[in-house]
Amino acid sequence: MATFIRENTEAILGEWEAFARSLPRGEAMNIVALRDHARDMLGVIADDWELPQTTQEQIDKGGQRRPTRWAASISEA
Predict the structure, then answer these.
(1) Angle between helices 9-22 and 31-50 in degrees, nearest 10
(2) Are residues 1 and 42 in contact, defined by beta-carbon separation less than 8 angstroms?
(3) Domain that holds residue 35
(4) Cβ-based neighbour number of residue 1 at 10 Å
(5) Residue 5 burial (CB < 10 Å; 0-12/13-18/19+)?
(6) What is the rounded CA–CA span in Å between residue 24 and residue 1?
(7) What is the pLDDT of residues 20-50, one digit of tens each?
């Protein structure tokens, strides 16, 4: 999945932009800022998928708790 995101980032961002513009007041949104933020999120997600994880980390990610490593990577982005 990480490879797919990295290889298709521009297409994903294009769809993200189209969706944002379809929302009420979407035309007034700062699309450049939205794209930059979405690009950062995609990078963090792809990076996270490439990290090895323990069974407990997999369980934590699947539930309501966020593992410390994951939470730290989001705050650094």
Answers:
(1) 140
(2) no
(3) 2-76
(4) 9
(5) middle
(6) 31
(7) 889 888 778 888 888 888 999 999 999 988 9
**Amino acid (1-letter code) at residue 33:** A
What confidence tens digit (pLDDT) does each residue in 11-24 have? 999 999 999 889 88
Q: Residue 66 CA to chain centroid, in angstroms?
A: 15
Measured between alpha carbons, how far is 60 from 56 in angstroms, rounded to an integer? 6
Nearest to 70 by CA among 35, 51, 55, 40: 51
* 35: its two tokens: 């794209």
Task: Give CA–CA dist 13/40, Å, rounded.
Answer: 11
Fill in the amino acid letter for 56.
Q
- Structurally, the chain folds into a number of domains equal to 1
